[in-house]
Amino acid sequence: MNDIDILVPFGLPPAELAPDLLRNMQLPATSTLLARGTPVASQVAPAPGLAAGEHDDFARALPHEAWLARRFGLNAGLQAGGSPPIAADLLRSFGGHTDTGHWFVLQPVHLHIARDHLVLTDPRQLQLSEADARILFTTAQPAFDEAGLELHFGSADYWFVRADRHADLQTATPDATCGRNIDIWMPQGDSARAWRKLQNEVQMGWYGHPVNEAREARRAHPVNSLWLWGGADAAAARAPSPGPLPDTVLGFDGWLAAFDASAAGSQPAPVVEQLLANEGRHAMLMLDALIEPALASDWGRWLERWNELETAWLAPLLAGLVDGRIGRVSLVLGDGNRLREYAVTRMSLRKFWAKPALTRLLP
Q1: 70-97 as b/e, with b when 16 or more CB fall inside 10 Å?
Q2: Rounded Cα–Cα distance for residues 148 and 166 (Å)
Q3: Domain range for 131
Q4: The pLDDT of residue 79 is above 70
Q5: Number of domains in the chain
Q6: Quick one: which of 75, 182, 217, 297 has the most CB atoms within 10 Å?
Q7: Residues 36 and 124 in one domain
Q8: Which long-range contacts (CB under 8 A, 24 or more apart) does 82-85 make?
Q9: pTM above threshold 0.85
Q10: pLDDT value, residue 219
């Protein structure tokens, strides 16, 4: 039998909309798993004044990001009040060879103007081609060379910089920052001013750039800034995991490849049959389809995506639990400041008195 951890970022609806959204959710399999599952205690104690499973609204990583970082032993940055230290491992997943220095992830991004401040647009919306990304990378390179910083290209979405003298910076993940005033989410530390100076130089070099003019002509967001995060010492060892690590990971796209090298590179989209056929192993599945609509506050699309997850994943996995192909399912649901985890076994499904319901999605 298999054990499966299922992580669903933004599977919890926002508190102010939860009652209305739940009235429009018809998820029988998810309802059964939630109602008959056993709550699992949080891996870490909550901050002062917060209940178990709640996270600081101003934390620099989202609850599910922090959960993953702790699970895979990459939590040093969280302990320092920053983002998960994934840069060196992510660089290695792109074939980079490094065992020294302090590295950061650099993501090309679009900042848009709100009434009186700048806001980070979800980087998923950029859809930057590798050809255009390499052109912008080349344009930015001289500024980094002049600053004495080593710049590496990983992909269109992920660049890397070795910045040993900026190791003090506390940074925030893009998803923790999206849709908010970036002022309090910008890198903080003694070297923050030097970083902002370099960032401004890159922004000026990209202003009016032919790549951006072409993007604007086709009504795409211009690439007008860089987001720095994920600072990591390349020689640092991972911390012990608070729980068993999976034998197989599925759905670990983008920067999540930093957690498990087997997830790196181009992979076909995971299908539920992979989990059901993975007999006797421990798997972890990331279902990230709710992140984009949640960050955009598009709750109609969020409901549609939940229905798709129910049909494609939760219903077949519940069936596998019922017929014994799966031994345990751990369902981990989060939002911007909460995380809930429920463990479901074939035995717990016998709790006939626990009627299927989604009430555990409520605050």
Answers
A1: bbbbbbbbbeeebbbbbbbbbbbbbebe
A2: 12
A3: 91-233
A4: no
A5: 2
A6: 75
A7: no
A8: 82/169, 82/170, 82/171, 82/172, 82/229, 82/231, 83/171, 83/172, 83/173, 83/176, 83/229, 83/230, 83/231, 84/173, 84/230, 85/230, 85/231, 85/232, 85/233, 85/236
A9: yes
A10: 96
